[in-house]
Amino acid sequence: MSSPASAARGSLSGSASAAPDPYMPGAGTTAYRVERYELDLDYRVASNRLSGRAVLHGVAQVPTSAIVLDLVGLRATKVQLNGGKTVRFSQRAEQLVVAAPGQLAAGEPFTLDIRYGGSPSPRRGLWGEVGWEELTDGVLVAGQPNGAPSWFPCNDHPRDKASYRFTVTTDANYRAVCNGVLQSRTTRSSRETWTYEQAEPMPAYLATVQIGRYSLLELDTGRHPAQVPQLVAAPPALAGQARTGLALQPAMMRTFSSCFGPYPFTGYTVVVTGDELEIPLEAQGMSILGPNHLNADWESQRLIAHELAHQWFGNSLTAASWQDIWLHEGFACYAEWIWSEEAGVMPVAARAGAAWRRLKAEAQDLLVGDPGPEHMFDDRVYKRGALAVHAVRVAVGDLAFFALLQEWTSAHRHGSVSTHDFIMAVDRATAIDTEALLHPWLYEEVLPPLPAG
User: Is the pLDDT confidence value at 1 over 70?
Assistant: First the structure.
């Protein structure tokens, strides 16, 4: 739990740490960056057996004699560096350490070819179970915040963005759904292979593979110029429910494209699992819902809107440090409120007022701009983060506010951002004292007055 001392340390004018991320001290490194992952996976559903090959194309950022990767619950069997002979490696609980003959110089590119395998399972931590998870009939991957190493070796730092190619071979009659654009599907005997290309850079935690007995349908987007293909992968028995439950999603896409700027990827896929899920999940270019999230009520529809909004805030624009997760959740929560008004459910101001009153009645002992790892998914980060966004809107007016959001998403498209970056963006676009406005919302425990305007 954050303390008044951490409140004093929090600053709107500081830059993101060059860490390993302070919220995930055992994960990720800035000693190198990965430019591309090429993952070749062979998975057998009945036995939960994964055989993998991961080729990583990276660049050293500092001189180093070892490349440290995150890998949990799976065993590496062979590692090659730069296409040469097998190199030495060691593995401890959560890391794979590859010895580089000699030393890699800063700026030197390298290629790692890693063979690995085992029976993947979720990773347990402060946020419950994350990562590779077996469904009743298939697989779900929930990577946020540190589940990626449960299924492939990676540099699990939110700022380390790379392109990906996924090649997944699994049992016939199962569909593998990954980030990006489907390049090919081939069938051989009782096995099928699916290849996807994810060209836009993404951090490892947003990479995903979903496997199930899914059929694919396309939502009617009305040929609107702001639309991109919107696909749904669902069990055939849930296809009708999925189409009905997601009927408003194309309108959400139009609304958010108008407010936030063009949708940042080539398409959007919703996977509907056969199992009910506690919460929906987001990945780059994709969301994963349970059948219990497909109702017509506001609770279901706000979650659909929330996950869609993350494609702008969280996926295209990714916080450089988990400390700034309010830049994901506060903005996605505010997008819910925007959709509420557009859909005629409740105006934004009323949503803001209701959220403020709930927060006023709760403990005020959390810093939204530095909640601490154990509280980074606390609902107060979402709601008070959204109120911080609303405070900016009230202060600058609608015209300047939406112009600001479009400039923000355009300037940092497919990049990494910090609270400092947002403060600077507001300062450049408006005449307000942004730090004075946002400091109480982000770095003071006491709830500021409700923005009125």
Answer: no
Query: For residue 242, what are its two tokens?
Result: 């999925």
pLDDT digits (tens, 9 = 90+) for 216-270: 999 998 877 667 999 999 999 999 999 999 999 999 999 999 999 999 999 999 9
Q: Is pLDDT above 90 for 14?
A: no
Q: How far is CA 449 from CA 166, 384, 419, 426, in A?
A: 48, 12, 21, 21
Is 356 in a helix, a strand, or coil? helix
Residue 187 phi, psi dihedral angles, 5° rounding: -120, 135
CA distance 180 to 351: 34
Residue 271 structure tokens: 């996977």
Q: Residue 2 has what pLDDT?
A: 31
Average pLDDT over residues 42-66: 97
SS3 content of the chain, % helix, strand, coil (to 5): 30, 30, 35
Distance set, CA 136 to CA 128, 207, 273, 286 (Å): 19, 22, 10, 21
Using pLDDT thresholds of 50, 70 and 90, give the confidence band for residue 433: very high
Q: 123 pLDDT exceeds 60?
A: yes
Supply the pLDDT for residue 4.
27
- Give me the phi and psi of 248, to 5 degrees please: -90, -5
Could you tell me which of 328, 316, 311, 230 has the C-alpha nearest to residue 271?
230
Q: Which residues pair with 160 in a beta bridge?
A: none
DSSP 403-417: HHHHHHHHHTTTSEE
Only one residue has tokens 């600077």, namely: 424
Question: Which structural domains are found in the chain, ordered by start?
Answer: 32-212 (2.60.40.1730), 221-309 (3.30.2010.30), 319-443 (1.10.390.10)
Give one DSSP letter per residue of 378-440, joined into a string. -HHHHHHHHHHHHHHHHHH-HHHHHHHHHHHHHHTTTSEE-HHHHHHHHHHH-SS-HHHHHHH
Within 10 angstroms of residue 71's Cβ, the number of other Cβ atoms is: 26
Q: What is the CA radius of gyration of the chain?
A: 22
Q: Are 63 and 32 in contact (CB under 8 A)?
A: no
Six token digits for residue 418? 């910090």
SS3 299: helix
- Both tokens assigned to 248: 């408003």
DSSP characters over 89-120: EEE-SSEEEEEEEEEEPTT-EEEEEEEEEE--
pTM, entire model? 0.94
